[in-house]
Design brief:
- The chain folds into two domains: 120 residues, Phosphorylase Kinase, domain 1; 199 residues, Aminoglycoside 3'-phosphotransferase, Chain: A, domain 2, CATH 3.90.1200.
- It is built from nine helices and nine strands.
- A five-stranded antiparallel β-sheet has the order 1-2-3-5-4. The protein has a two-stranded antiparallel sheet with strand order 6-9. The chain has a two-stranded antiparallel ribbon with strand order 7-8.
- Helices cover 41% and strands 12% of the residues.
- 41% of the residues are buried.
- Helix 3 runs parallel beside helix 7 and helix 4 packs antiparallel against helix 5.
């Protein structure tokens, strides 16, 4: 399984990528059958960082992570958090893609992969994404998540893999120039104590509350069905400031969020936290260059975001405070 931070000798060909997809698909099929599901015509719905497979004719979708930022040691724990949060939201009647009711709400391990199983929902192929409406929906999601009773790690998606990726990129000036790598490391040294520790965050931003958050731009992670819109993809769910779900969003979207948040009794967004969380997100993007050998399309996909980072304020202005 592609579970290591990429290094020079890990480059994969198109044949390697196809073989990885086939292996992940086969693992999902075998795992589903072992759980008693009828699987006759598996269909790959999505294949980037995870292979997402409809285990047809069963109404179950398996999501199998194949491109990971570091080792897979903590993957199952993160998947348990994801299933717990999405399952709790579904149980409360909130619009979410739920874990499959046909299997236990637990990650499933098979052939070196750790996967999660979800209820299949039919997407509306004619639907156009409405990111502004989804931003208002993000405020409603935050209001719902405030009542989640479980424990979650503080901004757990900002983990050791960032520093590990910079170590790998030191040997890859073709992916990140030495001057850029130096800035990224210095910037992370300023951000890390604030975004990886609840105590550090509280010291930097006294009075700014934290709560369960989606962790990965929920206004993009909405599935449109004939019966309405469903929140999805809680892989990065964590405890943190709501601003981490809105980092790098434009002013119009932020205003829509604040208007809906006010109606729901939520606090307004904090511009200082937005800037710092935006910087942390940009550092994640730079670190993701270490995965190019596992997912070659990333080099082109990430180029505009890396260029935007080069022109952004250092550490979201945190170093200037």
């Amino acid at each position: 399984m592609a579970g290591r931070t990429a290094c020079h000798d890990d480059r994969v060909s198109a044949l390697d990528l196809a073989a990885r997809t086939a292996r992940a698909t086969n693992a999902a099929v075998e795992a589903g059958r072992a759980l008693g599901l009828t699987v006759g015509e598996p269909r790959v719905l999505h294949d980037v960082f995870s292979v997402v497979v409809h285990l047809a004719p069963s109404p179950v979708v398996a999501r199998v992570p194949t491109v990971l930022t570091s080792t897979s040691a903590g993957l199952a724990a993160r998947q348990r958090d994801e299933l717990a949060v999405a399952g709790w939201l579904a149980d409360q009647g909130h619009p979410v893609v739920p874990p499959s009711p046909l299997v236990p709400r637990e990650p499933v391990s098979h052939d070196g992969f750790s996967m999660t199983l979800w209820q299949f929902v039919e997407q509306d192929p004619a639907a156009e994404p409405d990111f502004f409406r989804n931003t208002a929906s993000t405020a409603r999601l935050h209001a719902a998540l405030r009542d989640f009773p479980g424990e979650l790690p503080f901004l757990g998606f900002l983990d050791d893999s960032i520093a590990e990726s910079f170590t790998a990129l030191a040997d890859r000036p073709d992916l990140l120039a030495p001057a850029d790598l130096d800035r990224a490391r210095r910037e992370w040294a300023v951000l890390e104590p604030v975004v990886r520790s609840r105590e550090g965050f509280a010291a930097a931003f006294p009075g700014v509350d934290v709560q369960p958050v989606h962790g990965d731009a929920p206004f993009y992670n909405v599935i449109v069905t004939a019966d309405g819109e469903l929140w999805s993809d809680f892989e990065c769910v964590a405890l943190g400031p709501v601003e981490c779900d809105l980092a790098l969003l434009g002013e119009e979207g932020l205003a829509i969020y604040d208007a809906t948040a006010a109606e729901l009794g939520l606090r307004p967004l904090d511009e200082r936290v937005l800037a710092v969380m935006g910087a942390a997100r940009q550092i994640q993007v730079v670190a993701a260059l270490a995965l190019v050998d596992h997912l070659p399309s990333l080099a082109e996909d990430l180029a505009p975001a890396v260029e935007a980072w080069r022109g952004a304020p250092f550490a979201g202005g945190l170093a200037d405070r």
